[in-house]
Amino acid sequence: MRIFWRLMLTLLLLATLVVGGPWLLVQLLTVGRTWTSADEAPGRDVVLVMGAATRYGLSPSPYLQARLDLALELWRQGKALVFIVSGSTSDNEPAVMRAYLEQNGVHPADIVEDTGGNDSFSSCVRAGERFGVAELTVVTQSYHVPRTVATCRLVGVDAIGVGDDTRAKDDTWRSYERRELGANIKMVYDVVISREVGQSGYDPAVQEALARHY
After folding, report:
1. 106 and 100 in contact (C-beta within 8 Å)?
2. Maximum distance among all alpha carbons in the chain?
3. 31-69 burial string, b = 16+ CB within 10 Å, else e?
4. Which of 83, 99, 152, 214 could disulfide-link 157, Cβ–Cβ 3.0 to 4.6 Å?
5. What's the pLDDT band for 16 if we cut at 50, 70, 90?
6. Which residues are 85's β-sheet partners?
7. Nearest alpha carbon to residue 126 among 146, 150, 145, 151
8. Distance of alpha carbon 31 from alpha carbon 2, whole angstroms
9. Residue 167 belongs to domain spanning
10. 19 and 55 in contact (C-beta within 8 Å)?
11. How many Cβ atoms are within 10 Å of 178's Cβ, its own excluded?
12. For 162-208, what is each residue's pLDDT tens digit?
């Protein structure tokens, strides 16, 4: 029986390390770098809006619209110049995000679609390596912001984050919060193995968009 409890304790400690280690890393990498209001956040030239589900590939879901509205608020306050809309083409995310931003007054030349942003790691890597962005503001939901900022920093992009916190804290929201624990572990794995995300060469679109403003 004593051996059994020692084994259980060992497994518990390992589980705590596996789950708690990545969580702690995320917290350390995001201290003083996340906000839930455009009013409080500092400005950066580039905003990376993370993709989310759309409505039949035609319009943003409530979660995605909230992200876009927050990014627009940064832009209206002069805290952003150029948008990278990063998501999956399977749900037409980048095109839907572009259309929504244009409908709300953003010039088409200030929007760059990243059609290879299939997850947070891909979006961060491609922002730095494909589009040549050294620093940016990530916009997503508040539960997602810490991991996304941490991911970008770990792959060499100096990121801060602003997270939407307006959605109802219902079962859906809480399930996404819990999912972050496992996603933190995957983030560490992706960074360690330098997972390939399909760069397809350098794209000057972001730099060309920024040049319009300087």
Report:
1. no
2. 72
3. eebbbbebeebeebbbbbbbbbbbeeeeebbebbbbbbb
4. 152
5. low
6. 49, 113
7. 151
8. 42
9. 2-211
10. no
11. 10
12. 999 999 899 999 999 999 988 998 998 999 899 998 777 899 999 99
Give yes or no for a contact between 93 and 164, defined as CB atoms under 8 angstroms apart: no
Q: Report which residue type is found at 194.
A: S
What phi and psi, each to the nearest 5 degrees, are found at residue 34?
A: -130, 145
Number of alpha carbons in the 13 Å side-chain half-sphere of residue 102? 13
DSSP character string of the chain? -HHHHHHHHHHHHHHHHHHHHHHHHHHHHTTT-EES-TTTSPP-SEEEEEP--EETTTEE-HHHHHHHHHHHHHHHTTS-SEEEEE-BGGGTHHHHHHHHHHHTT--GGGEEEETB--SHHHHHHHHHHTT--SEEEEEEETTTHHHHHHHHHHTT-EEEEEEE--S--SHHHHHHHHHHHHHHHHHHHHHHHT------S--THHHHHHHTT-
Answer whether 48's CB lies under 8 Å from 135's CB: no
